Amino acid sequence: MAAACDTWRAGPRAAPVLADLERYGRGTPFADCPALARLFAPGDAARRFSSRFCDTFAVALSGEPLGQLPFRHNFDGALATLLLARVGTAQLALSAQESGEYETASVVFSDAVRHDAVVAGAAQARVTRRMADGSLAHRDMRLAAGCRLALDLAGEALFVGRVERRLVTLRLHRTAPQPGPVREYALADGAWLQQAAGALLHSRHAMMLALLGRMQRSEAAPLMAAIAGEEGPHSLRWEALREALALDTATGFAALCRLARSPLDPLAAPAGALRAQLIEAHPPLRAFEEAHCRA
What we know:
With about 300 residues, the protein is an alpha+beta fold. The protein has helices at about 1-10, 15-25, 35-40, 45-65, 200-215, 220-230, 235-245, 250-260, 270-280, 285-290; strands at about 75, 80-85, 90-95, 100, 105-110, 110-130, 135-145, 150, 155-175, 180-185, 190-195.
């Protein structure tokens, strides 16, 4: 299987595409990556690229029926994904969505761009756009072999509601170098539901903070308080502040007061609101603030 992978990567169809993906993942504009752009332009390039990939590994599997494809893959019973390559912030993948009806009550926007080339199958889908006034606009469309889509995922999202025949798509995805948060909105009224970190590294740091908190590592509180006062993703700074408060009230509350007194910091207002709530619920904190947090 590894030999088949090497053969495919070095082949005349894949090698130029993977070379362009290397450049695209490092920030080169899409239009300056001709082999990659050709896959998502009108024509047969995406189907031929995908067919060559499948043919190569079908032959390998016929000789090694228990072999495993040397690519990250996932299948949840409805959607299968196969990651062909990933470089920097870009990744190229094949996806296959099984026939059936699908529903959702929300839409998610992220700081990324995506190109889709439908290779096979047929489906009914909907593109949702978030307008300048915060409302959501929808456009229904039919997907079939040969369809091409380019989406700015910061304000556009595609949802496949009904798959008539297994929908196979070649997909190119690139995240912004410094992505903002991923936000979820209700389809019914456009209300903001929740958000998550847009960068994997920020999510990892948040998990580390949470783990230290669950382990009751109080010696980490000063570092958490420092993170809360530094530049960085607001969600990560706020999580650091919460964990510092839980581990060491004095250290965390002092950091909270400093944040509340920083009028130019975007977190100053929520920090001030939390400070007031904590003092109301725990009156001794007012005396602590007078003694330790007034500079």
